[in-house]
Amino acid sequence: MMSRLIFYRIQTLCMFALAALPMLSSCARQNSKIPQVTVSQIEPYLHAAKPPDCSMPVLYSEPRTKYRKIAIVEGWVRGPEQKAELLAALQRKACETGADALLVLQQRFQSTGALLESGEIRAGVEDPVAEGGISIADRLQKEEHFTQQGEAGFRGYYINAVATNLSDHK
Predict the structure, then answer these.
(1) What pLDDT shows up at residue 18?
(2) Domain boundaries of the chain, sorted by first residue
């Protein structure tokens, strides 16, 4: 009798776990969506949003005519080989603002090298204090921190741009 009760409890737990699995995997997929693009409105949008596949010119220097910056459009991907994909995502977001053009202000690849040199820590050795008064244990804790987007040391390819209106200026 007791073993049958345990069997049913285990079976019920397994069914709940299987039911929750699709929800957990969809959360993981949403958080790892690459490229990641954000839009920050800086002036009121005067034009209606354009379709996502609109023709959005990309400028790499300021236009010679007057223009208005209406939104900051920035994004990142994991590496420079995804630059074209990131630029297309930025253009789609600029279309949503009703902009006439996307002005790229900065683009760069940020990476980190090897954080630890081999042989620095040996088993059974006290934690010595390195130069500057930082112990190796404290340094390891700092170096094992996984940086997030926007933090110094985050690895990725960034493009910072602004959505602009060329015809409506003040």
Answers:
(1) 63
(2) 32-112+153-170
